[in-house]
Amino acid sequence: MSKDYKEMWNNLGLNLKAHDGLLSVLTEAYKNIYLSQKNRPKGMGYFDFVVSEVHGLRIEELLEAKESGRKIIGTFCIFVPEELVLATDAVFIGLCSGADIGSDEAEKYIPKNTCALIKSFMGFKASGLCPYVESTDLIVGETTCDGKKKAFEIFNDITGKVYVIEVPNKQGETDINLWKAEIKKFAEKLENLTGKKITIEKLRAASKIVNNKRKALQRLSLLRANDPSPISGLDALLINQISFYDDPIRFTLKLNELCDELDDRVRVGIGATKKGAKRVLIGGSPMAIPNWKTHAIIEGSGAIVVGEEACVGERSYRTLVDLDNAEIEEAYDIITNRYISLDCACFTPNNDRMKNIKDMVRTLKADGFIHYALQFCTPYTMESYKAKNTIATISLPFLKIETDYSMEDMGQLKTRIEAFLEMIKESNSKNNSCCSCRRK
After folding, report:
1. What average pLDDT score do residues 382-390 get?
2. Considering only CA atoms, which of 98, 193, 176 is closest in space to residue 137?
């Protein structure tokens, strides 16, 4: 970090000793996983800097925003409309939920067999380790699973600043009406909190900021379709994770600069791996920072991750919000339809997700699909069945993984992933042989 932030952390009420230990562990992990990569794009230097200051300079920026009168809105989920937050001149920020932190403290409030994401955000708060939670004026939860909606009741008891949006379980007409009502109630909550009225002009300006960020992420995704991919899956995952933390305008600028560099790498054939490396698409539960272990194992085994079919990935930026010709009521309809179309496993049925998985396989030229689910994440562990059947229709190797944020299963995962990559090798050899026969 560029300076000593201990006074700032102390004023936020963090557990300084435990926080120092956390930063030490994360710094070492980042060095071993990220900085050990060879031939990284120079543009990744900015994102390395963001990570090094994720609890420092970025928190300082948030506190400066608060001093200027802006409100800080913390979220855990892509169902929270970023456009509405920005339209009230508030700051939209993702909260800590991607590390095996404070489990003992979290289990004073929630069951032991709770999914790692929920246990993580409870543990970060209960252990005094998340400066983002302490910086927020409002924490927005959502009812995407039973575990979350009950945990948010407890989280509000602890923090006193949780607001929950009701996400429907279906996507029919009555569900859309319910969702629009929730969107408008959330907008009213933001207006009351910030003292700023949401107008169509502010919504249009906010949607342009968010759309530009999504377009930059779409651009990065398409660049990964090249063989060799000009960027590692680890670096692309990190960029997607940072998109929830960084200032959106600055992030978009830096990502487009990186994509310019990646365009140049594609033109001259420079890749993160050799041409022909086995290409893996991974999908399922979200991977919040610093959850890097599955990507690290895959790429440490000689393959490359070419896409994330997940909330921290394609699901968050697949579609845009066009408000150029809309008036205020129509704008709410457009925002409603965009967010209810997200193919989260909370919906039943969720056939769009299966179609999108196949589309991503084709676009990114994936050789195999890994369905990743956090232990006790019922929606995604259940949906692995349909994902497996979907992948079978296109004769692609499939692997189902259930894991958490700990490092205890690293050896087991490595063995399973290496066996899966051998399946891909055999599948590719068989397909090439068949193609050769057909050519004859």
Report:
1. 98
2. 193
